[in-house]
Input
Amino acid sequence: MSDATVRRAWPYPRWVAHRGAGKLAPENTLAAFRLGAAHGYRMFECDAKLSADGVPFLMHDATLERTTSGHGIGGDQAWSTLSQLDAGGWHSRAFAGEPLATLDNLARFCLTNGYFLNIEIKPTPGVERVTGGVVAQHAASLWAGAEVPPLLTSFKTESLEGARASAPELPRGLLLDTLWDGWLDAALALDCTAVVCNHALWDVATVARVNAAGLRTLSYTVNDEWAAERLIALGTDGVITDRIDVFSPAR
Output
């Protein structure tokens, strides 16, 4: 199969709503994904980690304090405890009482409505590979038979290794905040289909290098018009943004 054939097969839209609705709703909650959809977005990014009893749930931070009413490390607590937390009140009174979401919850929302998903595997430190494997296994089961599977991404190569071992059929992407030595070789060794960079890292040469390897190019977190226009001019494939109120995915 040629690189051109691989690129033609890419099924995902260019515009991706970061953590559901950027900063307009409490991140990684179902309320955020509903709001992102109301703004016309058809693809979302979320963060997934494991509870102490192995339930994949949505949260960015290792600790609970910033985005919930809880305290301590989320991955150290059982889902029965996590499910009782307020994950919306920190954002605004309008979202007070919004619960944490499981990956199962979000999968049902996306599959019912025909939406696409980028699942960032965001492990609690120390369980990187296990988290990648469990999240991938759940995703493969939830999207079994779906025309378009979710894209699994992570900064942690161990998590992507776990995902590949557990569900090799699901597409993967390596997240980068710097272009560390061997990053492209690592992406290829992990059989990734995409590289997802801090948007400032992309330039003509780097995009060309990734494209020549047959991989796709995505960017986070793009909140300024000038940055979006630069990435579009470079020919990148995906723009992850908080500014769902500024960028129309139909543009």
Q: What stands out?
A: The chain is about 30% helix and 15% strand. Strands lie at 15-17, 43-50, 56-58, 116-121, 151-154, 172-176, 194-198, 216-220, 238-241. The domain at 3-61+103-241 is CATH 3.20.20.190 (TIM Barrel).
